[in-house]
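Summary for the steering committee. The consortium agreed at its last meeting that each partner would contribute one worked example illustrating the joint modelling workflow. Our contribution is presented below. We chose a case with several input lines so that the handling of multiple components could be demonstrated. No manual editing was applied between input and output; the record is shown as generated.
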Amino acid sequence: MPALAVQQLTKTYKGGFQALKGIDLSVEEGDFFALLGPNGAGKSTFIGIIASLVNKTGGQVEVFGHDLDHDPEAVKSCIGLVPQEFNFNLFLPVFEVVLNQAGYYGIPRREAKVRAERYLRQLDLWDRRDTEMRKLSGGLKRRLMIARALVHQPRLLILDEPTAGVDIEIRRSMWSFLRDLNAGGTTIILTTHYLEEAESLCRQIAIINQGRIAERSSVADLLGKL
Ligand code: ADP
Ligand code: ADP
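What follows is the complete predicted structure of the assembly.
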């Protein structure tokens, strides 16, 4: 069973703009997958639909065999999302940001605290657990969003442009964290417009352009063609 199976996915926004024009894509369990494309290609729209933030216009989405239309709650419980922008919870301390998310998934407080500590330590944020989120740098905020997205232990982690605007040192630490997470069995899909990021991290890649999949291959094969 694939982690993600998408068929003929379309999205037309209210003004009539067609952001997705019939996407077919599948991602195997355990994969580290890059969705690469220029700004405006439809990447955020695509993952917004998978993560139930955007309504699709047409087509089918299945996550670990759960159909998004028939069982959206099952889909949500399989997915952790690291959004590109986060302007919520800004006045909450780091630890509470993660605990809040755990509460949203109904994880008992004691277990939530254990997990929050584990992920904040792994992401080098434990020393800042009492710092308000708004006081973190962009890169640290993004690492916090990763901890938050993992607290319900999703099988699929989706990251929207995880390292855009993040300095090189924090980018490297994020890359190494994500590699370890994937090695532990979590399927990862990220969007990026840096080929270098896809090349360094991912095994499979799809290139999206103007709402269509322009290319789909292993990263190794794609680089061989360039
Ligand atoms: P949905 O169909 O998923 O409900 P909407 O079409 O309602 O999405 O759009 C959500 C909001 O985003 C609207 O308020 C819309 O005005 C706004 N929006 C419009 N154009 C853009 C754009 N190019 N990028 C981001 N947001 C936009
Ligand atoms: P990417 O993530 O690849 O940069 P997006 O999915 O954000 O692309 O956007 C794809 C296209 O859809 C863009 O042209 C964008 O302006 C448009 N778009 C995004 N959100 C909305 C919205 N809410 N309403 C109308 N148009 C939108």
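Residues 13-14, 54-55 surround adenosine-5'-diphosphate (ligand 1) (CB under 6 Å). The first strand starts at residue 4 and ends at 12.
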